[in-house]
Amino acid sequence: MLGALERAPCGFLTFDGGGIVLSANATLLEMLGVAREVVVGRRFETLLTVSSRIFYQTHLLPMLKLQPTVEELFLTLRCGENGDVAVLANVARHEDGDRGIYDCVFMRLRERRKWEDEIVRAKRVAEEANRANSALLSMMSHDVRTPIGSISGYCDLLLMGIRGPLREEQRGDVERMKKASEFVLGLIDDILSFTRLRAGEVARFDMKTIDVESVLAQTETLMGMRFEQAGVGYERRECTPELKVVADPDRLQQILLNLLTNAVKFTPRGGKLTVSCATEGEWTRINVADTGRGIPPDHIEQIFEPFVQVPASAIAGGGTQKGFGLGLAISRSLARKMNGDLTVSSTLGEGSTFTVSLRAPDSQAPSA
Amino acid sequence: MNNEAPLTRALDLCGHCGCAPVTGGFLVGDILSRNNVKVFGRGRQPMMFAHGFGCDQNMWRFITPAFADDYRIVLFDYVGSGKSDIASYDARRYGSLEGYARDVLDICRALHLEDVIFVGHSVSSMIGVLAANREPSLFANLILVGPSPRYINDSPYVGGFERRDIEELLDTMDKNYIGWANYLAPAIMKNPDRPELSAELSDSFCSTDPVIARRFAEATFYADNRADLARLEIPALVLQCADDIIAPTTVGEYVHRELRGSQLHYLEATGHCPHMSHPEETIAAIKDYLSQASLPLDSSSERANRKTERRRE
User: One of B121, B272, B275, B278 is an active-site residue; which one?
Assistant: First the structure.
């Protein structure tokens, strides 16, 4: 009754809506090493290994109820003297009167299985290494941060004069120690944030309606001294107190601090930073523009990759590299986790504008 | 008096590294979009349907029309399944079934649900039990389709599987997602102007991210919720299929024994998905149970009284 299918170069089998096998071709019987009567009349899932039976019940069967075909499924058959037989299966449902009939085609996997085993093994090793790597980074950062924090704190004690008055040279030395320790603390904070984001562990976002102006004002207070030290001008435009977004205020401040710190770093003395805001439909945009050297077009998307900075050789007049290149990766990830985004536009030699896009409160209505 | 000691001690401690475990709160405020919640129906009492491992709320499409006239139907996808917001996935939260139970409670609170009839398939049966144990006041009844509190044998308890079976399942899942990706990649590359191809194929596996699907499988099949059964105060119906390899009859009977005041209904349907393979029989069993339970109830105080009576029994 199978006609030409009987000797087709692949296994073929049909079963009904109750899972009872109606027919099987000779190729499949030889593949399994069983007689036809062993297979026909049995429930299809009993031809599978335990793990494939679970997959059949939890994935394949529901899918076949919702769609007419399922293709390229990896399954393992087990019922005859040939032991486990790994196959790729295509299954199609058709209606025969008022009952569903399922046609299955099986391609035996030999060489390919070896390679797929190898891929799965390599994937597991990579996942494990990634987990271990993140754990190590996180632990190291934590263990290094504590003593560096102490160094910074003791510098404060000395600068406050608690151990007695400092001579001018001593004060200068301690201030340099303090600055260096704060720089290292910043790097460690970046690593901690990045490893947590990558591990999907930052789950506590306090999303609420906030006004952009107040977050900007706090950020400016923290950045004021740096603008002065770097000799760059700062101006805020078009950010009215009425402008609101749905975001976690601390995370938004973290993003803005990252962007302004970056802008200060890459803008030469005498340059200028400008923050402006705009509303476009459901989006509120916060733009941080600088008059730095700009980003070469072929590096523009790379800068959001972790551990990537524009090489000094790619920037006209050279440039300085500080940090791990994690700030923008973290900032974009934070923006996206708040349902927004972080993008950049840049003109080489003229400067760059980073844009944080966040949803306005009215666009956050429930969908159900 | 020396006041410096506390100050210097404080400096030696880790005060600002944020190493404290993340607790409470959630990443995205909008729970309804996070879990792709759908609400419909003309009734007042909520009937919440929770899908099992491997698929999404579409599983219930053959069942819900039969209840839409009399109940308020609530459907959702667990984070990582269906059209949920995958960006909300938190490995720590969803590393165990408790995290998924919190999703159920989040949805109940977001929609201000009370007297909920919770219908859970497979692993969602236990997720429902965990949710009802945390917040019993929210639930009226649990309907457990193919429940299993533990899938791995633990003599004398027989769950049906050995640990190596589950390890093989994870292997099978990995290979299927790899095969699926191999199949998908050329299809997309050849049709860059048809991004819907990607969506169609992603839909076909319900869980869109293989890493999340694997973690959900681990949370499901390595779980042991036997001790949680005895704590349940909510009346429950256990629907048991014939020839169910995932939740064998002995397991359904175990669940029934451990759940005080529960009912056990044997279905003629075979396999693990009676709501898809035998929807009429499944609907009839649920309706029969709900009519016996005289639902919907008139008032919450009446329900509270009945609960007390059941506990006394």
Answer: B272
